[in-house]
Amino acid sequence: MTVMQHVWIVLGVLFVLLNIAAGLIWVERRMLAMWQDRLGPNRAGPLGILIVLADTLKLFFKEDWIPPFADKWVFIVAPAVVVGSVLMSFVIIPFTPQIIVSDLNVGILFFLAMSSLGVYSIVLGGWASNNKYSLLGAMRGASQMIAYEVFMGLSLMGVVMLTGSFKLGDIVNAQKDMWFVVKQPLGLILFFIAGIAETHRLPFDIPEAESELVAGYHSEYSGMKFGMFFIGEYLGITLISAVTVTMFFGGWLGWSFLPPWAWFFLKTFAFILFFILLRASLPRPRYDQLMETGWKILLPLALANLMITGAVALLIRG
Amino acid sequence: MFSHIRTIWLTFLHLFKRHVTIQYPEEKIRLRPRWRGRIVLTKDPDGGERCVGCYLCAVACPVDCIALQATEDENGRRYPEFFRINFSRCIFCGYCEDACPTYAIQLIPDFEMGEYNRQNLVFEKEDLLINSQGKYPGYNFYKVAGMDAGVKQKGEGENEDAPVDVHSLMP
Amino acid sequence: MNYLFYISSIVAIAATVMVITRHQPVHALLYLVVSFLGVAMIFLSLGAPFVATLEIILYAGAIIVLFIFVVMMLNLGRESAIQEKQWMQPKTWIGPSILTAILLGELLVLLTMGGSVPMPQQTVDLKKIPLSLYGEYVIAVELTGFLLMAGIVGAAHIGRHKKKYLHRFLKQEEEAV
Questions:
Q1: B114: distance to nearest CA of chain A, Å?
Q2: Of A3, A275, B127, C140, which is most buried by a Cβ count within 10 Å?
Q3: The complex's ipTM?
């Protein structure tokens, strides 16, 4: 692959991802409305799709306010960290056999590393805001993400064990006969729960919990800095959906009447919709319940899944 | 755990249900005749004002948004000199309509009263008075009232006996 | 690849210097994260991607977060900085800094004296790591396991929840009985 091709792939992936993240503003509001028997935004443009433009313009032109009591530089860095770390994770996602920025041989570990860096945006954003609610949100976010990161990694290791490789390209190719969702259903469920907690989406949106903590760690943010958190959250949803599809649902594999990238996007989109459906249907657990399920139920389950997978793999290999 | 999955499924099914949203400015909701909206002052079938300036509406009003001053014309017919309702205070409870002895003050099914200037929400008598009999067509207070206010002579009203000459009442 | 190594080394060293000189502990920890990322890059440029990612996941992603977590709750302010200055008497720092200076001198001497050996670069295959961990160094792994188990048991013991009374009123009632 030439350098130019590589640059084009990077730019293309970036373009598509940012557009998806922006488009999700509309998709989420519209789908939430559908599930609540409402109509949702339907005024600007056909079916209200220009709400994306309106929202983005609004964010751009809002006053970019840094509170005088905030720690200025950390306050500025925090929202950039979340977008940066999530975008970095997309480096290893194979959209098709050709379109992949870099098929690292530590693939999944790189994804885990980047998602673990995402904690900093919450912690630093909350701390730099110098606000009680933000700090509470930051502390909740930090402990939640550390707790759920642990078994997020472990739940993926079953798939790695069956494939024998960390490379996502290899993992997809290993699913030619059967998707890993059949062999690793528990791994899928655990990974998805951890993914919701990592992106702090709605059943687990305890760091922001608007009914308790104003807006949690980003209470003090406005304008495009808030927009970065916003985009980061949507990118996070897309990332978790994409990784789920790659790991458990055969990535770009599918019947030949559609091109591989279309299969990938269809599957990813289905999971994004599932994220929104969860938001529409499930209530938020209490903070201690969240931590308790994380450490006392889900982590042992992930370990058990790993052990059983290993034992079965050993038995089959003889 | 099962209940969670059931919740998710039931929420998903709502995708195929009808919306309850009414696209307001284009579609309008059907308001019932007794819907309590804007307050009006109605007129008798013969075109005279029904309001007799009894102040009962102003007394009944829980938010004190009605102000009026009663006066009389040369026939002794009472009418309000001014009648003012401050709709920025009004809560559309309908107590004034209940209190009114002459069916003059009525609430009609109209709620589109948005204004940019709050002062414009203070309605004077000329804004309130409509050329209609409202919900009680054919009702004319002075026809059933015992007194003579230029509408009919004493004793000529509906269900009214002729006045008794007290001087002729002999035991 | 050599340039990558030098750039990331310079970043790591600069970040580490910033860690030492910051007054605000959270800023210092942030620079520590940068330093860890620099070190991870060094590992990556030397052909050890596994160690690099582990460095990020464990040190940058988990341990420093816990540090920041604790620092956030300590609410360090101006007073604690003044207090810290009082601890930093010359007699406390002079001994360690002499020793460090000797080490630095040795390092400089070695850097200038030693002939230029080309940097050994070979990518470590991921499969080699578990094979050596559970083959050659199995005793070390087991010992680490013991150590971590002791840590977990200790943490569980300290963190055990001994809540007898659901509410202070109930406690008084029980005492009265």
A1: 21
A2: A275
A3: 0.79
